[in-house]
Structure formats: C-alpha cells, structure tokens
Amino acid sequence: MALSANLTQPVRAHDSTDAAPGWTFAIHGGAGTMDRGRMTAQQQAEYKAALQAALDAGSAVLRNGGSALEAVRAAILLMEDDPKFNAGRGAVFTWEGANELDAAIMDGRDRSAGAVTGVTSVRHPILLADAVRMDGRHVFLSGAGAEEFASDKGLETMPPEWFATDARRDALERLKAEKLSAMDVDHKFGTVGAVALDSEGHLAAGTSTGGLTGKRWGRIGDAPMIGAGTYADDRVCAVSATGAGEYFIRAGVAHEICARMRIGREGPQVAADAVMAEVKELGGDGGVILVTPAGEAVFSFNTTGMYRGRATSGGVNEVAIFTE
Ligand code: ASP
C-alpha cells in the first residue's frame, strides 16, 4: 500500500495482492487563489473540518459496502448545506441577485447521468440531478422545468433566504461597484465535487455549484455539463472539476482526461496534468479530482490551492488546502 506524504502524489486503495477489494474516495470544495497569509488559522481549521466531515461521510458509505453513487451523494449533501462552499446554501449571486444552482452526477457502471441548471429552490441540487439520472428519460434539465420535476419527485425546497449569505452578497456588490470580474471576487471558486470507487469496482462522480458571482443571461458553467465538469466511466476514471467553467467547457476537461487514459493509455496524473495545462493555455484556472478502477486518487490544479481530501480502504485519510 502506498501512503502518500503529501497530496500531490497519487495513492492507491490497495495492492493487487490485497485479498479484499478496495475503495477510494476523493472530494474537492473548489480551487483558487489561496494564500496561507490571507486565511487565518481559524478559517483554515474550519475549512479542514468541513472537508473532513464530507470525506468521512463518503468514506463511511464505502467502508460499509455502499455504492460509489451513494458516497458521492453523501459528501455533496453535507457541502451543499455548508455556507462556506459555493453550492446549495452559500452559493454565489447572479448579476440580478439570485442564487441559481447547477449540479450533475454520473454513474460509471452504465454512464447514466443527470444534470440540472438554474435551479433556485431545491435544497440539494445533487439529489435533483440524481433523480433526473434515475428517471432516465433526459439527462439535463433547466430552470422552471427542473423545479417542476423536483416537485413531482417530492424533493425538499427552501426559500431564497436559505441559500443567500452576506459574504456572497458582499462579493456581488463589490464586483458591481469596483467593476471586478468573478475571478477577482471569487478567488476560491468553492464549487464542491466528489468521486468514488466502491468495493464492487464501480465509479461515480458528482459536482454541485452556484457558478460564478455576477453570472448573467442564464449562464451555465462546466459543473453540470457531462464531460466538462463531471464524468464517470467504469473503464477508466471518474472526474469532478472546479474553476473558470468557460475554459473547462471548451477543453471538455472531464471527458478529455478519461479519453486520454482510455485511448492514449496515459496514467491518471499525466492525463489530468496535461488537460489542466491545456486549460491554463486557454486562459483558465482551476483543478480536478479523479479516481480510477485501480483505486488511485489524483488531484491536479493550476491554482495556488484547492480545498481537497481523499481516503482509501488502505488507510489514507487526508485533507489539504494549499499546494503542499
Ligand atoms: N466551475 C464553476 C463554474 O464555472 C465554478 C467553480 O468551480 O466554482 O460555474
């Protein structure tokens, strides 16, 4: 078993000689400009505790023989309720001052996928995305139609105040007053994602976000786009991304990483780093997490930090914020 000393090296769930099948789990809570100097020790501790809670929730599912999909849902549910992250409660504001939520989930077994965009009242967009996936007639629902589908499925809704936080409102006001870009005020993207390999050998990926501060005109980012911010295929990998969505869409990041691994036979770290380098070349910042059927858990980001964590049946259990 390989226990990594830091979070820049891949880890494996298990040796091929292990008798018991292994599981691997990884999460992110967004990438971005993260300086040790700009975060107090208290803030760092709070983020690490939130990441650990989400990591533990997914790991517990996998340890108890649950599925990769269940683990992804369990971790994202917690982060959607946590106002520190840009997903569900605590999502960023649109130009008009609303919280419009995007989410996607994908099952590596059959590549069934569900995604939603522009949702304003559903407490857990990741559960709505999964309801779309299970329903199976469509993959991607938007706005009022997605809300109607949520109500048909009996999903929990919340009033606008639930999602709105002062910190995110201040960011919108600053963006408008100082004519800043979303990149200037968001710094840490704060989108959440999870990827898992379960002990049956199946993969899943999920991502949930409020998008970018000040987004307009019904803008949709990469997170809910299958193949851009979210992808899972049992044959190769499960990926969740965070960052400047426009560039991740143009590079088709999540699918491109899986394709490089499947067709190009690249290793997960090589493939992820190569695609993140392409994103950088196009002008975009951000990062990805991925797991493979062999139990590797990999991070790649071109920012100074990414809220992240990973755990394996082999005993790895770590969370981190900065480039280590
Ligand atoms: N990728 C997301 C988007 O562009 C933003 C983020 O990662 O926080 O909508």
TrEMBL record:
Residues flagged as site, Cleavage: G190, T191
SUPFAM superfamilies linked: N-terminal nucleophile aminohydrolases (Ntn hydrolases)
InterPro entries: Ntn_hydrolases_N, Peptidase_T2
GO biological process: proteolysis
MF terms in GO: hydrolase activity, acting on carbon-nitrogen (but not peptide) bonds, in linear amides; peptidase activity
Pfam families: Asparaginase_2
The keyword Protease belongs to this UniProt entry's keyword annotation: yes
Superkingdom of origin: Bacteria
Keywords on record: Autocatalytic cleavage, Hydrolase, Protease
UniProt entry tagged with the keyword Transmembrane: no
The name this protein goes by in its record: Isoaspartyl peptidase
Organism ancestry: Bacteria, Pseudomonadati, Pseudomonadota, Alphaproteobacteria, Sphingomonadales
